[in-house]
Amino acid sequence: MRLGFASAPIAFAPKKPAKSLAPGEKHARVIAVAAQKGGVGKTTTTVSLGAALARYYDKKVLIIDLDAQSHVELAMRGMVNAGAGSLAELLEEPTMMEVGEIAVGTKVPLLDVMPGSQDLARAENRLSTRIGKELVLRDLIDVTRTHYDIILLDCPPNLGNLTLNGLVAADSVLVPCNPAMLAVSGVEGLLGAVEQIRKALNPRLDVLGLVLTRVDQRNAATNALITDMLVENWGGLLAPVQINADVAIQKAQIEGVDIHGFDAHARAAKQYCELAEWVIGRV
Ligand SMILES: Nc1ncnc2c1ncn2[C@@H]1O[C@H](COP(=O)(O)OP(=O)(O)O)[C@@H](O)[C@H]1O
Ligand SMILES: [Mg+2]
């Protein structure tokens, strides 16, 4: 029996409704800063790298905090303008609004922030029952991307729905790692997840690199062992710049400003600038 619909024009693919944010002219590279483990320097790297890119490399940067602990806002509370909307609400009830409409500026002219909040934990739970739950953040920055050069996603320390959304929305992932065995094992877990996401959900996701952070030079033997392990397993991915443990980072976070605003001559400030230059070369 011949069914008669072959030649009829197909008219059932509705056009996506227009977003309320007008498109810009940029094409942001979206970089997820992720690791399975907490305390390895994700937030510090996101803030210090984002601030370096905006301050010294003329990049328009948006930092999005996907962690319910809201550490980005805590670390930048002395420089973030008030008045941000709720990312959790957008994740729970997507409308035509975009993250770019509810983010706020900072004292650094080219640096904007979408702070996190405790509500993200609730949003993460609600996401689990949604069809297409992995794609929500990607849709929420679809037009936002056209207003920035670089968007950095500070991911939570697990492989839950928010990190999954971050990795699906991202073009690249940057993995901070401490010179400690548990952090190295976390790298393996994360890279395995990246491989699965690349196959199933986001074929363009690449690994920008691994960066060693909070390297305390008093532990030279342990540092060398861990570095050897990283080189042996993922040598090609290891960033040529490492970030030393520097008390200026902690002092900057106590003041609520980025390391470059706190002390541009601090060792970690210079190292995060070198990391920014390396990132620009890679993207
Ligand atoms: N280079 C560094 N030197 C000194 N302290 C650091 C450095 N990087 C991070 N820290 C500190 O280590 C702790 C964990 O860093 P954080 O960036 O919050 O990690 P994560 O986001 O992975 O949980 C914070 O207290 C932070 O101040
Ligand atoms: Mg953090």
Structural features:
283 residues; alpha/beta; Rossmann fold; 7-stranded mixed beta sheet; 12 helices; 7 strands; 41% helix; binds adenosine-5'-diphosphate; binds magnesium ion
Could you provide a short overview of the structure?
The chain has 283 residues and is α/β, with parallel strands linked by helices. It contains 12 helices and 7 strands. The chain has a 7-stranded mixed sheet with strand order 3-4-2-5-1-6-7, sandwiched between helices.
Total helical elements: 12
Oligomer, anyone?
single chain
H/E element order: EHEHHHEEHHEHEHEHHHH
Q: What's the architecture in CATH terms?
A: 3-Layer(aba) Sandwich
Query: Tell me, what is the CATH class?
Result: Alpha Beta
CATH topology-level name: Rossmann fold
Secondary structure tally: strands? 7
Overall shape: it is: globular
Helix content: 40-55%
State which percent range the strand residues make up: 5-15%
Bound molecules: adenosine-5'-diphosphate, magnesium ion
> Which residues sit in consecutive blocks of at least 5 with pLDDT less than 50?
none
Rounded Rg: 20 Å
Q: What is the residue-mean pLDDT, rounded to a whole number?
A: 94
Largest sheet geometry:
7 strands, mixed
Q: Alpha-carbon distance between the termini?
A: 55 Å
Strand order of the largest sheet: 3-4-2-5-1-6-7
Please explain how this structure is put together.
There is one protein chain. The protein is built from twelve helices and seven strands. It is α/β, with parallel strands linked by helices and 283 residues long. The protein has a single domain (29-282), classed as Rossmann fold (3-Layer(aba) Sandwich), CATH 3.40.50.300. The chain has a seven-stranded mixed β-sheet, sandwiched between helices. It is globular and about 65 Å long. Adenosine-5'-diphosphate (ADP) binds at residues 38-44, 71, 157, 213-214, 243, 245-246, 249-250, 253, 268.
